[in-house]
Amino acid sequence: MEIIKYLIPLITFLLGMLLTPYIEGLKEKRKNRILKDNIWIELHDELINLKGSIKETDKNISFRKNKIEKLQYLNLPQEIELLILSDKLKEIYPYLTREQRLACKTLIKLQDSINEKREEVIKNYLGSNSRCQRLEEAMLKEKLSMYYLINQLIHSKDKFTRPTESNDHLILKAAASLDIQNKPSRTNN
Fold first, then answer.
1. Alpha-carbon gap, residue 180 to 59, rounded angstroms
2. Tens of pLDDT, residues 21-32
3. How much is the pTM?
4. 3-state SS, residue 70
5. At what angle do helices 83-92 and 2-64 cross, to 10 degrees?
6. DSSP states of 104-160 as a string?
């Protein structure tokens, strides 16, 4: 009986030592699953915002057409901010599929490019209507590309694969699904 009294703490200690890596692994998996879920939630929210942003950009382009060069018009949707994706991509990078990693990097590049063009429109809206129109047309193409990519990502999740169709074709598909008036004819910016 005396031996059992001394062996129980020793056995408990050894079990704790053996199970620690397993428990830590479970904690890490849970943390990464929560991060991925948060990114999917953010992408779903951004998809909803992007629909409105695309329609607003489309209206702006229609308004700018055939107007005088010195037109002073500024009505831009809010910036695109994929905060969780930008901040946490490094942490969950190894837990995404190769296709998801490439898509996430593309989304961040598109976000930066769209926001840069938005800033250019803000800088130029007092002087050059045609420049602002070209910038908004380029933004529209990128937003449509982003819309298609986010839509595919959130609906496919771990089964996501990059489309094999050309970006031009995907943009036209996205434009048609959103009933955009100013359909892009080509995507070379």
1. 9
2. 999 999 999 999
3. 0.85
4. coil
5. 140
6. HHHHHHHHHHHHHHHHHHHHHTTT-HHHHHHHHHHHHHHHHHHHHHHHHHHHHGGG-
